[in-house]
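Suppose you are handed a protein chain with no further information: no name, no annotation, nothing but its sequence. What can you learn? This example shows the usual starting point.
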Amino acid sequence: MRKPLKKALSGIVTAALIFSALPGVSAAAVEKGPKSEAAIKEILKQHQSKQGKTSSVKKEKDQKFADKTLMIKYKTPISAQAHQRAGGKLIQRVAALGYDIVQVNGKISMEDAAKNYASMPGVSSISKSALLKQAGGPDLKASVMYHLNTLNIPEASKLAGKHKVRVAVVDTGVDAKHPELKNKIKGNKNVMNPAQNGLVDVHGTHVSGIIAAEKNNGTGGYGINPNADILSIDVFNRSFFANDYVVAQGILTAIEQKAQVINLSLSSWFPSPIIEDAVQKAIDANITVVAAAGNSGLNIQEYPASFEGVIAVGSTNSKNKLSGYSTFGPSVDVVAPGEDVYSTLFDFEKGSSYGKMSGTSMSSPAVAGVVSLMLSKNPKLTPYQINYILNKTAKDLGTKGYDISYGNGLIDPVAALKYDVKKVPANPKLPADKKLGAAKAVAAEDGKVNTVSGSFKKMNQTDLYKLNVKKGEFVQTKLTGSSNYDYVLGLEFYKGKETKAASTQKINDQGDNGTEGTLFEAKEDGVLLVSVKDAYGNYSEADLSKYGLTIETHNTKLEDTNNMEAPEKVSVLPYQSDKPFYFTDESADMPPADEGTKDQGQEENPSKPALKGDSDYFSFKTVEVKAGEMMKFALSGVAGIDSNLKISMMVEEEGEKFTSEIGMADTKGPGQGEEVIFQASQNTEYLIEVSNKPSMDAWMWMMMTGEQVIDLDRNFSSHLPYEVSLSSQVIEADEDNFPEMRGGSAEGEKPLSATDAIKRSEIIVDDSSPIDSFEEYIQRVLSSALPYKTGSTSKGYIQYMGDEDWYAFTPDEHAIYDFTFANGRESYVPAMDIYRYDEKVKDLIPLATNIQLTGNSYGPAAKYEAGLKKGQTYYLKMADINYQASLYPYEFTVKATHKNTADKYETNDDYAQAKPIGLTSVEGNFSSIGDMDMFYFKPAASGLYGYAIQPMPEKITGAKVAENLKAAIDPVLVTIEDTNGNGKLEPEEEGNFIISDYGFDNDPESGSLEGKKGKGYFAVALNYWGTQTTIVPYKLTFAKMGGKDEDSGSVVKKGIPSKPASMKNGSAKGYFHSPKDSDTYKLVLTKDKKLTAALKTPFGTDGKVTLYNSKGKAIWTADQYGTGDSELFKLSLKKGTYYVKVEEAMNRVSMSPYELTIK
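A reasonable first move is to predict its three-dimensional structure. Written in structure tokens, the prediction is:
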């Protein structure tokens, strides 16, 4: 993941959580989350039970790293005593990859331990341990498996060979007794507990079924390659997460078990070096590695999919459109069906089962299965050849040709199996000992700039350049490239005439369409090898992937002599620097820390490394400042340098001068520069610090931002100069005079004094402020908010750091409103948050924001749609996303685009407004942001009552509205008992609630209650995605349960019912009236028949069918499929009388009918 997005994400605070106490589902073991009820139930059950906590890693679902764990990559093994002195305890050594896994002593911080290890000469890198999550007869259910037809697997199977192929599923444990998999599992390993098999789980079972489920076994569907063998390697041990070193050991286990394909349906945002090494070891062993691209829905890199040589797979749906959750970008090679994929499951109560799941976890095994088909035909194919063929034969989707959404396109198994292997070009990747000989020589002269260019027309192509360097010389490199491609700049240094690299470095800060660069310092004579390659081996035969490389050599380090004691003085505005300024690492010139005396043979004591980087300073003094005059200081970007700005005022008290920081800017990533805008005070001296030192201690920075690996080799100097500018501009006075300066005058009336400016830098009030100041803040918002009318245009400025402009908007009709911001060169799009004021809690409740994550960017959208209610006052806050000022005005207009969107029960957002509902159905919607619909049910008699809420997206299928307004709803239903039945919710009744929230997008929810006459029940319906605007309607139903039984009065003796129910034309409908209710139907055949039987049950129920012969003996039982999945089976019966018993497998009651057919 690139740093600009990381920095942005670090500032996100969730505005509101609907039910923080709800069990986590979507981020647990299934990435996006399972779509079948059976899978939902199993995930919930698994992680609510003790058996779901067997792992030593018991973490929150959003945790990214293991606590108190570091991975130390060593050049030479580290002794136990050295570990102890550094503050760590060795818990595992992965010698095959050169890593020690250490637990940090509780008395020492991870930062201090990391510093201690960093000072050891035998340590080459330090990283936190990343946690990876799981990335979601005839075969009667094959028709449900749309992915088989999408990929034309029936035809591809005809082209497959006879060679057996071993596919390693490094995942959760697999149900080895599943009828689809029992003949497929040829290895069953548990990395965390080698003495036992993998712990049977949902995710790994589903993945394995996609690859190799049995064909023609009369149940379920079948896999991409039913002839493949599965090596189950459990690295999760029924935990939410797996440590990266455990995953790495799982990969090593796959190598030992002679796997030919490894599927990794797991992902992390952080590039674990130990997994990268394990993956490379597998590829070197001629094993093809396939991995899920991830489920972020963003243009980012997720790992291990983004590691070199891995086939990264994105997800598509049944319409061959990219799934909304699918991670995309230049790291994605191909896409495959991953949404609503039907496959094998494990049910902790009933055992082997089936269901649908969604995620790139499902698309990855589809590709792994196709790879196994290719290897069954030609087992000598290499990972490179397989990758090339899949990319070359993929069906183009999206933009013509390669694009960053679909990569090379949808895999085409038939074309891949037909492709002539002889047409695959030789792998251009060179072994290490051949690189120097193949590199083009570049002359190295002091001050000379060498410029070369090239293009990538072959997969895995690497262009190499070399130059001789002498001790003390400096080489500056800079790499630019084409959009949609992500290039890596590599440096390898060879001492003297040696042929093995003494040091290596890879630079990839920017991602696609970025500039890379770094400065190399020669510590001795030798050869510098500079490499350029696509980060993921991508290429363009149409010559669309081009790069430019500059190599500049200097005999001495370039410096600008700028420091705090001798700052660059700015005397005239506007100012534009006309001489070069450089970032020159100050720590490089510092003497080493005192190491003290050590005994002979004793290892070095850890010492604190100097903080790397450089700070330059610019000073200026104001004389007269106009009212509303703003200053802008801008810093250009430097490739390979992550810069920041700090602005301070020089303050004098009692004859002593000191600086007072009033603002900073550190929001962008390497090579992108920064800018800061502020309102200056007259007759004031300012000092601006331009730096590439981290904004906080380097080690704390790693812990706080998620930058995983401490890069000990990065150069914090650069010979690429930066530029600065300082300008001023007069803007209008603040629109709403909010926030007011404490003790100051109204803004814009006169220039700020230095004292007021310092106060302003502290003006932002938040929830941590004392309650009286926060209440004052709320009241000032309510009183200062400017009125806004529909259709008008409002204009304003964000005048200073921390400025907020508030507007009060009361719509005069229920509608979808379009918020449009001017988005030209001379305009500015602010971050807009929409609130409503809650009189009961005296607070502003956040409802929605125009801040969006799109691609690899994070920021405010120029167009935003929100459903709003008639008569409700909304408060609109305009501010800068980083609370900086802007010289450009914002301008917005709000118009109603879709009118009359409210359902007929609005407004019913409060318990006092709850609409009465009887034993009937009502239709409503959540067309306004934050909408909650309240109903009140008062039973006429005591008894069991059922309720259900059903999304109805089919009702707007042909509606002429934008697709985003047809977004799926995830309904949540809460019932609250009104014990005294007075139609009011008293405080003592607030805890009497039941939440129904087990499904996902457009899934129904249902439940039941033991209704008592005289009591009432509030039913609160809401959309889990409360901030989105959608017009998808729902139907809410209440019904009396426990009606007349279908075979009422029947008594079963020895399997024979006295009064069986009748079937009409082979069909029957009924209800599960009570927990132990069962219905028995009579089936009479006048001749021998082959029949297909199906039992379709309503949402939330799991049907079971038992067939008895005329003597009452059970001859067939169907309970193979899970909750919400129809039982479907074939029968071959002789003529005669039979009895068909229908029951709910888990003794649940239904409010909707089941349907039984035997034809």
